[in-house]
Design goal:
1 helix; alpha+beta; 27% helix; three-stranded antiparallel beta sheet; Ubiquitin-like (UB roll); 3 strands; single chain
């Protein structure tokens, strides 16, 4: 599996978008994107519609 870096932002509070950069192991870029949605949603209780992923790059 390859290492991917996912960058983006999520709505942390009203009118405040928190940026993030996460690194994970995945088979492809779509798997890394899904992992980021799951990680942010699970840790911060944010729905997928409020997570904006800017880029997914192989590390």
């Amino acid at each position: 599996m390859a290492q991917f870096t996912v960058t983006g932002s999520f709505l942390a509070r009203r009118d405040y978008w928190q940026t993030f950069q996460k690194t994970c192991e995945a088979h492809d870029a779509d798997g890394a994107r899904e992992w980021a949605f799951s990680e942010i949603g699970g840790c911060h209780r944010v729905k997928r519609g409020l997570v904006h992923i800017d880029s997914v790059a192989e590390a």
